[in-house]
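Please go through this protein, sequence plus structure tokens, and consider how the sequence yields the tokens. Keep your notes short.
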Amino acid sequence: MNLNAFQIALRGMAMGMAEVVPGVSGGTIAFITGIYERLLEAIKSFSPALVGVFRREGVPGLWKAIHGNFLVALLLGMAAGIVVGIFGITWLIEHQPQAIWSFFFGLILASAVWIGRQMNGWTWREVTGLLVASALAYWITIASPATGSENLLFVLICGMIAISAMLLPGISGSFLLLLMGMYTVVIGHVKGMLETFAAEHLMIVGVFAVGCLIGLAGFSRVLTWVFRHYHNLALAILTGFMLGSLNRLWPWKIVTATRINSQGEEVPFIERSVWPSDFPGDPQVLTVIVCLLAGFGLVWFMDSRSPSKALDPGQ
């Protein structure tokens, strides 16, 4: 599928916005918009072999080898999406939680169905992979979050883990940050960097970015190898991850524990999913249904407009 820079940037923007939302994976957006394979290949291209490419072909050859045009457009879009997500989607989560969570619930549910349809049949191995992945993802959604830290080594490791999760459809890097207690730490420093450019914010964000680069370089190679050698099983596991993560996106939750954030505000710490009838406020059932269908429909719209395929193990 040939895409121009603007189309790639829009996909990157959607990925960036998704990564800000705990429970939604940018890898899911990349998969359903048809750029997942190209993204993995671009990331994997960064290796010592580039030195030889530069000596033989110079800057033009090097730029082509690293998929330069694609990466620049995608990263610019992602940066814009992250900014929009931090200041926009986080506002929606705070003020319209049922609407935004139900929208993403529908989006992830449709994405799981879409990925499952890319498989070439089911055997006991695929069924087992789906069930185990679903159980693991569900356990992650109910695990108690840890307490964050600004220790630079821990920040580096969190960057490696979060970016690796971003590459997996169904696993949210921002939600793993939440479980490690680092979501508000990282988001707070990103906001501070955008507003004041203070050295402390630049340091934390810089170390986190280095961790992301390390994670990308290593995990992209692992993931490409898995897809090429265990294609069907990999898709089944990804489908399971998405289905298991739906609990995190359930629109009706009650807070069972709170904490004090860095601004001294009391915020939710642990939440539990409930039925609409047990929700303490207005469940907004009609709004939830409409937004869920909108999220579900968006996936099928993107699929019909941008036909894509799963990774081919022979590629």
